[in-house]
Design brief:
EC number: 6.3.5.5
Structural class: alpha/beta
Number of helices: 9
CATH superfamily of the largest domain: Class I glutamine amidotransferase (GATase) domain
Distance between the termini: 63 Å
GO molecular function: ATP binding; carbamoyl-phosphate synthase (glutamine-hydrolyzing) activity; glutaminase activity
Organism: Neobacillus massiliamazoniensis
CATH topology of the largest domain: Rossmann fold
Pathway: Pyrimidine metabolism; UMP biosynthesis via de novo pathway; (S)-dihydroorotate from bicarbonate: step 1/3; Amino-acid biosynthesis; L-arginine biosynthesis; carbamoyl phosphate from bicarbonate: step 1/1
Bound molecules: glutamine
Strand content: 25-35%
Radius of gyration: 20 Å
Catalytic activity: L-glutamine + H2O = L-glutamate + NH4(+); hydrogencarbonate + L-glutamine + 2 ATP + H2O = carbamoyl phosphate + L-glutamate + 2 ADP + phosphate + 2 H(+)
């Protein structure tokens, strides 16, 4: 555990103690305001290519358990924390936080003034940075072509989960395990398919509904698949979560833009426009659908963020397509919107074949 640095492309250098894997790592430096749930956050594939700063000052105090990973292995680029607790206290803890990072090949920096770092990100907007034993700003260059992060985290093979309820195809852009868990809890049979699976292959699986998952990166990087995404959503009851929401909006001609520093945390209030109720949601996104780009004759806006009024949900006026920018599966975070996954499954069950019978 030697001295290490986070060097931002804007020139600021933050000193700390290196933890986890011993390699240098470059990434987009973002922050998450959740007070708990660090295990779920570091294993959420939507963070691929990013260095997460935890705003909560103590990380590692309840260790790492055998149940709460959101993916097989973390795919984020690094972690920045304030106080690292190396003596976890929880009956289910099997590893220390730093051991988890090391085994996953992810470097981290502890003992950092995370409050100052978050203020810096908030003033510049999201910036690239490098974690290294050497504070050299020249290292902060995005080398070569931007990787297609979704390609790195999406499944390579189709996976089947049998069950006696409706059959959902989960299009995997880097899905969180708790989305699968929520579907299985509703008795759904689930088939997980790679992100580039075309309509014809999905049709051959004969699903009752399709779920477009969360995932990393800029949704526009997936533009070549928009026509297939549109076709799939026009043929099956559809739910889009986070990246899935953005992709569906884009596939129907809307636009997305990058937020200054994103929404990442477990306390983001969204208003359900139909009822006026405010729900507290888990969020992790850097992009949003641009308001003026929505075709109001095609989509209704269903949810808006209470803090910045950004679009948090859409519903198609004709097809049974619903999308949400936040995470109804939460994990970590409040379960105020868990009903969205349940309602999706109920809607599929009640729609049956009727809606598409004419085809
Ligand atoms: N959690 C997600 O699906 C994130 C979506 C997208 N990568 C964004 O940052 O906006």
């Amino acid at each position: 555990m030697g001295t290490g640095y986070l060097t931002l492309e804007t020139g600021e250098v933050f000193e700390g103690v290196l933890i986890g894997a011993e390699n240098d790592s470059i990434g987009e430096v973002v922050f998450n305001t959740s007070m708990t749930g660090y295990q779920e956050i570091i294993t959420d594939p939507s963070y691929a290519g990013q260095i997460i700063t935890f705003c909560y000052p103590i990380i590692g105090n309840y260790g790492i358990n055998a149940m709460d990973d959101e993916s097989i292995t973390p795919s984020l680029s690094g972690v920045i924390i304030g106080d690292l607790c190396e003596i976890p206290s929880h009956y289910q803890s099997i590893y220390k936080f730093s051991e988890k990072l090391k085994s996953a090949g992810v470097p981290g920096l502890a003992g950092v003034d995370t409050r100052l770092l978050v203020k810096t990100i908030r003033s510049h907007g999201t910036v690239n940075g490098v974690i290294s034993a050497n504070p050299d700003v020249k290292k902060v260059t995005t080398q070569g072509k931007k990787p297609l992060w979704v390609d790195q985290v999406s499944t390579k093979k189709t996976q089947f989960y049998k069950n006696n309820g409706p059959h959902i195809v989960l299009i995997d852009y880097g899905f969180k395990k708790s989305i699968l868990t929520a579907l299985l809890a509703e008795n759904c049979a689930v088939t997980i398919v790679p992100y580039h699976t075309p309509y014809e292959k999905i049709k051959a699986l004969n699903p009752d509904g399709v779920l477009f998952s969360n995932g990393p990166g800029d949704p526009m990087d997936l533009s070549r698949w928009f026509p297939e995404i549109k076709k799939i959503s026009q043929n099956y009851p559809t739910l889009g979560i986070c990246l899935g929401h953005q992709l569906i909006a884009l596939a129907y001609g809307a636009k997305t833009e990058k937020l200054k520093f994103g929404h990442r945390g477990g306390n983001h209030p969204v208003k359900e426009l139909l009822t006026g109720k405010v729900k507290i949601t888990a969020q992790n996104h850097g992009y949003v659908v641009v308001d003026e780009s929505i075709d109001c004759t095609t989509f209704d806006v269903t949810y808006r963020n209470v803090n910045d009024q950004s679009i948090e949900g859409l519903k198609h006026k004709v097809y049974p397509i619903q999308t949400v920018q936040f995470h109804p599966e939460a994990h970590p975070g409040p379960s105020d919107t868990a009903h969205i996954l349940k309602e999706f499954v109920n809607e599929i069950t009640s729609l049956g074949e009727s809606l598409y019978a004419a085809k």
